[in-house]
């Protein structure tokens, strides 16, 4: 790193921090040094910056808790069984079933744990579908331009104006989804369009930058330029959008299952809440079966809260000055200069 790259605060330029500096210089860097720098920029520094912010720390730990509950928890906690206890047993009335039971004597707490994998699968499917398609279309349309741009943006605009909820209801009625991954994909069917248009507008500006021109002059292909020169600049927005997409899919799925619009093909929090409303009359008589409705609602609130905090903390993770402060590579480079 040259003296021109050093800022007055001892940090580095935004291009240097995000790995989008001169393409020729990076091409001449030894592979081992380049790998070390990539680890510092994309792994070590984000972790250090993220851990220093309470929102990212709490949100990340919360997300990790739900992931463990949906993977390890289902192996540790036994599956809920009929007649584990009296019907509609309240919480803390029997410490062998501390969370209470439903209308057929099944533990409500066990149901929450064993419903978590389906929720995580729907969230993951929503992220993969919405973010994957939005990033692909947005980057290609913005970088290529011309006829490809117009064609892709025409399709994007069609999905933007389509009403999301009615479209989801129609699709679910014609082809009832039975797999959580399919449910998540359907719920995100038009969520990609807004992201694609936003990314496209940013790529239109980034493709004119000097480092992109240098990469083109070196003869690098379009996929290489997009992945190495443009994607790092868009990573903050994409990751924040991924957290938002997961939250939207989870909330939408619970709401549609609770209302009975989606078929009850797998255990999840929305199905539990629907049964609590219909079989336990939990809304009109919360003292009788309110715990059956409250526990999955609490699990839903905790997961969405963790995702929201995590997405807010990502702004700090991708702040160039904070990344420079925590970057070991930048410090080493500065210390090695005469």
TrEMBL record:
Chain intervals for the UniProt region annotation (Disordered): 1-21
Keyword vocabulary terms for this entry: Membrane, Transmembrane, Transmembrane helix, Transport
GO process terms (BP): transmembrane transport
Keyword Transport: yes
InterPro entries assigned: MetI-like (IPR000515), MetI-like_sf (IPR035906)
Major subcellular location class: membrane
Pfam families: BPD_transp_1
TM segment ranges: 58-77, 122-143, 155-175, 181-199, 237-264, 289-310
Entry protein name: ABC transporter permease
Species, as recorded: Natronoglomus mannanivorans
